[in-house]
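agent> Task received from the user: take the single chain below, predict its 3D structure, and emit structure tokens. No templates, no multimer pairing.
agent> Plan: (1) validate residues, (2) run structure prediction, (3) serialize to tokens, (4) report one or two observations.
agent> Step 1 OK, no nonstandard residues flagged.
tool_call: predict_structure(input=
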Amino acid sequence: MQPEALVRDHTIYACVMGSRAFGLATDDSDTDRRGVFLAPTPLFWRFDKPPTHVEGPAEEQFSWELERFCELALRANPNILECLHSPLVEYTDDTGRELLALRGAFLSRRVHDTFTRYAYGQRRKLETHISNHGTPRWKHAMHLLRLLTSARDLLRTGTLTIDVGDQREPLLAVKRGEVSWQEVETRMARLEREAEEAVRRSPLPAAPDRRRVEDFLARARRASALQADPYDEVVQGVMDDRGRRQG
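)
tool_result: status=success, residues=247
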């Protein structure tokens, strides 16, 4: 089965991410689409396993196989968690709706470490660009402030909110270069301190509910194995033909 066919025929969840989901879209913003597909269980019986992710088939589209998606979400990967909480859901089937119902199972205080490390990496890139070119990439600075705000609020409330709400205009002012880099650095430092304080009293559990997620994945795989699949039909046809010849 071609990777594009896995996305086309077996997607369980699809959403819009990026600036449109964050409430930061402008006239020139792209539409970034993300999704999760459930590869048919019989494909795992082959030597060549299904891909863990697929780019395309449309532009700005990226999808993960369900197991890989769950693995990354359990590790509190920021991009994956934000995808799972997008306010712009374009498609879900029954399995996708069950995945969305599990969103809380993936959240834990581990987000402080993963969001902080991701933010640190992005900040280093910003500082390198300033060293090489004299000015920061203001769009990247805006999204870094958004990420740090999201992490702080998640740790405070236990809820991951994607849309920036009333922070839209202050953040877009950063994107337009209307805020000094010194002020941006001050905001970053304040958000980091507030996240550090929030993690100590966070309502989030210490670790995600791995067992609950694994049970969901096993049931999804089992249900897929029971469905009729072209690969099953080919294998059964070969076996029947061998039986007739032997008889």
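agent> Step 4: summary for the user.
Residues 76 and 111 are 5 Å apart (CA to CA).
agent> Done.
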